[in-house]
Amino acid sequence: MPRPRSEMRQHILVTALRLFAQHGFKGASLQDIAADVPCSKASLLYHFADKDAILAELLTPPAGGLSALSEELSALDGPRAVRPAVTGYVDLAMRFRLELKIIFAELPEMLGHPVLAVIPPAVDQLADALAGRSQDPGALVSARMVIGGVAVAVAGGVDVRPDAVRDELIRGSLRTLGHPHS
To answer: Could you read off the pLDDT of 73-87 as tens digits, one per residue?
Structure first.
């Protein structure tokens, strides 16, 4: 049964997000999280059934965001979908950069997580929009390059102001997709 929202619960989530991003999901224990909060492990388990429940709560917003973006893009035709797909994806990646880092650190295991089941079809829909709904092999490959490149650049933590990172990601993505970036 889910526990009520509280400041402690939020503090646990923020701490777990940071520790998972630094050490990986497998590398950060419940005891590590409890010690960093600080609280007892019993208190942590009052708020979350286990470490997987913390992960599920952390990954639900980015997975939902990607699904929502895919839904928004489904109404756009061909080349009209490219710019909104690029800006929407870059903004989403920037917003959830630590969550992306967690996912990429242990990618095969993470993609098997039930909360992330929405990601493969949403990524396919995003790639279709990025390719401008084209079936041209070059457009399809470029779209997948943008998806991977943006995720790696954001998860890797480039030491540049966030607004500059966003602008460069959009500019580079549009260039990769063969679209003017002005």
So the answer is: 999 998 899 999 999
